[in-house]
Amino acid sequence: MKRHQSGVALVLVLWVITLLSVIAGNFAFSMRGEAKIARNLISTAQAQALADAGVQKAWFELSKPPTDLQRWQANGVPHRFTMGDAVLTVNVQDETGKIDLNTASDALLQGLFKSVGLSEEASVALVDAVVDWRDADRLRRLHGAEEGDYRSAGKSYIPTNSPFETIDELQRVLGMSADLYRKLAPALTVHSKQAGVTTAVAPRAVLLAIPGVNPAMVEQYLAQRQSLLAAGQRALPFAGAGSFGVGATGLSTYTARCEVKMTDGTVFVRQAVARLAQDPKRPMTVLAWGEGESEQLTEN
């Protein structure tokens, strides 16, 4: 009898030990998971702080006198440097080198849409939808979209019939997809207030959107422009732009983008738009501030 009781006690002890081992294992696994989450949060916070610092450095560099040879140029050329173990890539783009959603001509918008792969018919339809969204009337363009079209498509919103406040708003236009928007966004702005673009600071995507321009012309111009900049000279306008090219407007509105890559693989992108001024009490006005997309995601 005592031997039987001893056997039962041993089994109970073994079960308790097993149970405690399982509990301990689960606790250890949970703690490892929480520690990993904590490390990721810390790394993300560090990357965000560094990205903010990168943007502030861009504003500082742009605030230098134009005669300063070390002053950054707002032409999209990347500036890479390290802070601690992180690698920062900062570039600044003059907003006048982009296509303004509110003031660009139909031809320039259509050229942009075609340059990212849309057919002639699809490009015309999207231009009409964009203009229907931004114009003040409720009259539908031939291939456009007004309130009835949005209702029929099951949308819970209708065109604002007013200028775009941000380029993000373009995603709500009928006919726009997330993938198409990602391709278009880098070439667009709502801050230049001009019908054409300042080609001397325009990125490749904008130059390719100009009607009548082919990739060979753009690549040749970009090579010439880079050579001039490397020699410390001012870039010349793109002769192939014709009437779609405009001179410098003096608006001093720029997008600064900073991508931070940490050693553990964490990536954070800060993107901001600001208008610089000569007033020392208010040297700049921030027009937009948000998180951007990694270049790898944009390329994919």
Polypeptide structure, described:
- The chain has 300 residues and is of the alpha+beta class.
- The protein has a domain of 146 residues: GSPII I/J protein-like (Pantoate--beta-alanine Ligase, Chain: A,domain 2).
- It is 42% helix and 15% strand.
- The chain has 8 helices and 7 strands; from the N terminus they run αβββααααβααβββα.
- The strands form 2 sheets. A 5-stranded antiparallel sheet has the order 1-2-5-6-7. Strands 3-4 form a two-stranded parallel sheet.
- Strand 1 and strand 2 form a beta hairpin.
- Helix 2 packs across helix 3.
- The longest helix has 61 residues.
Briefly, what is this?
With 300 residues, this protein is of the alpha+beta class. The chain has helices at 2-62, 106-115, 120-134, 147-152, 178-184, 204-209, 215-230, 295-299; strands at 79-83, 86-94, 99-100, 188-189, 253-261, 267-276, 284-291. It has a domain at 2-97 and 250-299: GSPII I/J protein-like (Pantoate--beta-alanine Ligase, Chain: A,domain 2).
